[in-house]
Amino acid sequence: MPADGDLSPIPTSRPRAESPTAVSAMVRLVRESFALAEAHLDEVTRSFHANLFNISPSAREMFPINMEVQRSRLPRALVHVMQMVDRPDDLVPYLRELGRDHRKFGARSDHYEAVGTALIHAVREYSGPAWTDDVQRAWAEAYTIVARAMLEAAAEDADEPGHRTAEVVEHERIGWDLAVIRVLPSSPVPYRPGQYVSVEVPQRPRLWRNLSPANAPDDEGVLEFHVRAVDGGWVSRSLVAHAQLGDEWKIGAPMGHLAVDRTSDRDVLMIAGGTGIAPLRAIIEELAQWGQNPHVHLFTGGRVREDLYDLAHLQNIAVTNPWLTVIPVLENEPDVQAAEHGTLADVVTHYGTWDDCDILVSGSPAMIRATVSRLLINGAPQDHITYDPFDWD
After folding, report:
1. Are 197 and 254 in contact, with CB atoms under 8 Å apart?
2. Which of 30, 59, 350, 383 measures 20 to 30 Å from 186, CA to CA?
3. Interval 226-285: pLDDT, tens
């Protein structure tokens, strides 16, 4: 609770039409004040949830029973996007996707107001004397921008279901920590190859996690997911070990920006680590339906040979599609002859700068960070690189 015990709503009316200078000042105040509170992130997070459930008891039903599993995710995500309000070209499309996706929770406008009030009170509590009326106004205006974009997108999709159900029709263990799971949705999921969806599974109620379909949409509507059990991953470990035929999943709205522009003059560089191959494979399968495509250079990597579980399928596609080149990469097992050796970042940048290509990167957060950083240092333009950052569980 805030020191003064006051949980009255923070005004979040439509912000004034601001100049770029004013927006920059607003973002600076948000960043500076949160930098102070971030040293107490655990306390901020607990305060946020206590405030939220006090203001809006119905919001508790949107969260898992065990709050420790994802306690810090929502406040971290909110602060992250609020610090980007001076980059509308990047932020607004993302917020609109989030707004559509959050319909799966049954989120209403009063929930958005409660979240904003709870967050601002929690940050204020741990910002110390740096918190001023100007700082509070900056947080309120930044949050209003975020919430308004999400609510507008949700309203536009009001005729669409907040989520779809899907039945598990196949569960194939292809390793001790890896499974291919196929589900049949109750109605077709309108995703583009390369996008991801959030799922809720019966083994972990209310613990929504993001998974990428590994196949292009087909007539049957079946979605194929590649799931690796991650250390400490509540959802991934339960899916690999315990998903059963007939399980009913909930599937949220498609999100993500991985895609290939077939009209572009540029070649395409794809870089996939582990199960990060899934969305890129879906794109490749769709491209294979066309006779002519940009040339695609696919680097698919793992630590050991078993991590390249889908390599044979990709190589089969390449046999009949000369626009596709597949380069396997292994960090370990140097005796394997039919692969490059090293990290994906090392191998890819050894081949060149890739400054004239569209670049898609998919994998764990650590792999994406390392690979994108090396690409930029190596000369690849930032606006040519696309990746979808989300939690890896």
Report:
1. yes
2. 59
3. 999 988 788 899 999 999 999 999 999 899 989 999 999 999 999 999 999 999 999 999
Alpha-carbon span 181 to 208, nearest angstrom:
16
Quick: pLDDT tens for 194-243. 999 999 999 988 888 899 999 998 888 999 999 999 887 888 999 999 99
Contact between 211 and 230 under an 8 Å Cβ cutoff? The reply is no
DSSP 3-state of 261 = coil
Phi-psi region of 232 (alpha: psi -120 to 50; beta: other; left: phi over 0): left
Residue type at 151 in one-letter notation:
L
Helices (H) and strands (E) in the chain, counts: 11, 12
Threshold 0.90, pTM exceeds? no
Read off the pLDDT of residues 95-130 as tens digits, 9 standing for 90 and up. 888 888 888 888 888 999 999 999 999 999 998 888
What's the order of all strands across the beta sheet hosting 248-251?
209-211, 197-200, 248-251, 164-175, 178-185, 223-228
Distance CA 136, CA 334 (A): 56
pLDDT of residue 66: 62
Phi, psi of 190 (to 5 degrees): -80, 65
Contact 255, 97 (CB under 8 A): yes
Write out the two tokens for 337: 């002859």
* Strand bridging mode 178-185 / 223-228: antiparallel
